[in-house]
């Protein structure tokens, strides 16, 4: 794979290192409520960021598509771990049951599998075409039903986590 890095990708690369600082601090305080899910959120964001850097820096189309698919792991998991953080920080223990964790991860896992398997079967996840930008070309996405279900679900998880934390704060 060939890459063409720009100044903006260098800045993004450094911001990933900046995210490592709170991740290390949080890992050292892992006994605190919500520390582990928040640590995993930061790791997911770092994964997402670095995969996005490699996607934008990739020179050929197949490499760009590969790294775009890799970003989905970070995208899909960050919101789920945000909800886990909210539950754990507010001392809600019921979410740690296996079936609830499986339910929380069900839509993101299906979305990631549909992205990874899009070459072999069509779930209406997306259509990718080429467009032009500063680095040569970029990917233009047309999103399908699975994508919009994931967006709605992840947005609900984020808002739900905020509501749970807000209610906890007001008690």
Characteristics of this structure?
single chain; 171 residues; mainly alpha; two-stranded antiparallel sheet; 7% strand
Q: What can you see in these coordinates?
A:
The chain has 171 residues and is mainly α. The protein has five helices and two strands. Strands 1-2 form a two-stranded antiparallel sheet. A hairpin with a 6-residue loop joins strand 1 (126-131) and strand 2 (138-143). Helix 3 (61-89) packs parallel to helix 5 (145-170) and helix 4 (98-116) runs antiparallel to helix 5 (145-170). The radius of gyration is 18 Å and the shape is globular. The mean pLDDT is 85.
* Count of alpha/pi helices: 5
Give the class from helix and strand content and strand pairing: mainly alpha
Would you list the SSEs in sequence order as H and E?
HHHHEEH
| End-to-end separation | 53 Å
Across the major sheet, the strand order is 1-2
Uncertain stretches? none
Quick one: overall form? globular
For the largest beta-sheet, the strand count, sense and barrel status come to:
2 strands, antiparallel
Q: Mind telling me the C-alpha Rg?
A: 18 Å
Number of extended strands: 2
- Average pLDDT, to the nearest integer? 85
Write the layout of secondary structure elements.
Blueprint: H1 7-28, H2 35-57, H3 61-89, H4 98-116, E1 126-131, E2 138-143, H5 145-170
Antiparallel strand pairs: 1-2
Helix pairs in contact: 1-2, 2-3, 3-4, 3-5, 4-5
